[in-house]
Amino acid sequence: MAEGDVVRVALCDDHRIVRSGLRRILEAEDDLVVVGEAGSISEAVSLAAADHPDVFVMDLGLPDGSGLTATAEVRRVSPLTRVLVLTVHDDIAYLRRAFEAGADGYMVKEAADVELVQAIRQVARGRQYVHPSLGAALLVTEAPAARRGGPGGDLSNREDEVLRLIALGLTNTEIAERLYVSVRTIETHRAHIHQKLDIRSRAELVRFARETGLLDDTPPTP
C-alpha cells in the first residue's frame, strides 16, 4: 500500500465504548476509514471474510476466546489483511505469541492515540510495528549472549520463558493461560528444565533464574 492511500480499518474489542473511542480517533484522519467493528472472534472472522480490511486492530481478551485465535483466523480468511494487536498486556510473552499467530504489529492500549494512527499506517505499508518499550526489551531478551543451561543441555527460548514465569511464582495453569498452551505442555517444558539443569526444587529454579539474570527488567505480571 502506497503512502497517501486510504487505509480500511476494522476494530475488534469486546467493549463497545472502547471501539467507539478508537473509531473517533481514526476517523479524524483523512487517510483512515473504519469499515466495521467486532466484539468476538466469530464476528471478527465474519467481518474479515466479508470486507477484507487492510488492517484489523485486535484486542487479546475476547468473550469467546483469545485474540490470538482471532488473529490466526482473520489471516486465514483474509490473507492480505494485516493485524495490529492493541492490548493491555505490556509483556514480551504476549508479544511473541501475537507475532507467532500472524500479527504484524503490537502496541499497548495506554498509547492508543497518535501512536495508534502511526502504527496502523506503518502496518498497512507492510512493515512491522512494536511498541517502543517492548521493542527495546525484545532486543535485550533475544541478544545472542547467553544460553542458559546445565549438565543436560541449553534451555530453549520457550523453556527460558517458562522458567521465568515459574520464578515469578505462577502455577502451571497460570503459565499455560499466559502462553496460550495446554497445562500438559507446560508440565513437559518444566520436566525438561529440571532435567537439563539437574535441579529438583522450585527454590533452586528461582535461584538459578535470578543468578543468570532471567528476572532482570521483568515487567510486572498482569
- In percent, how much strand structure appears in the residues? 15-25%
* CATH-defined architecture of the largest domain: 3-Layer(aba) Sandwich
CATH class of the largest domain: Alpha Beta
Helix content: 40-55%
**What is the molecular shape?**
elongated
Structural class call reads alpha/beta
| Secondary structure tally: strands | 10
* Tally of helical segments: 10
Spatial order of strands in the largest sheet: 2-1-3-6-7-8
Number of domains: 2
Task: Please state the CA-atom Rg, rounded to the nearest Å.
Answer: 19 Å
CATH superfamily of the largest domain: Response regulator
The end-to-end distance, rounded to whole angstroms, is: 36 Å
**SSE arrangement, N to C:** EHEHEEEHEHEHEHEEHHHH
Mean pLDDT: 85
Tell me the CATH topology of the largest domain: Rossmann fold
Unreliably modeled segments: 139-145, 217-222
Major sheet characteristics? 6 strands, parallel
Care to describe what's here?
There is one protein chain. The protein is α/β, with parallel strands linked by helices and 222 residues long. The protein has two domains: 7-138, 3-Layer(aba) Sandwich (Rossmann fold); 149-211, Arc Repressor Mutant, subunit A. Helices cover 49% and strands 17% of the residues. The chain contains ten helices and ten strands. It has helices at residues 16-27, 41-51, 67-77, 92-101, 114-124, 132-141, 157-167, 172-179, 183-197, 202-211, and strands spanning 7-12, 32-38, 55-58, 61-62, 65-66, 82-87, 105-108, 129-130, 149-150, 153-154. Strands 2-1-3-6-7-8 form a six-stranded parallel beta sheet, with helices on both faces. Strands 4-5 form a two-stranded antiparallel ribbon. The protein has a two-stranded antiparallel sheet with strand order 9-10. It is elongated. The chain starts with 6 loop residues before the first strand and ends in an 11-residue tail after the last helix.
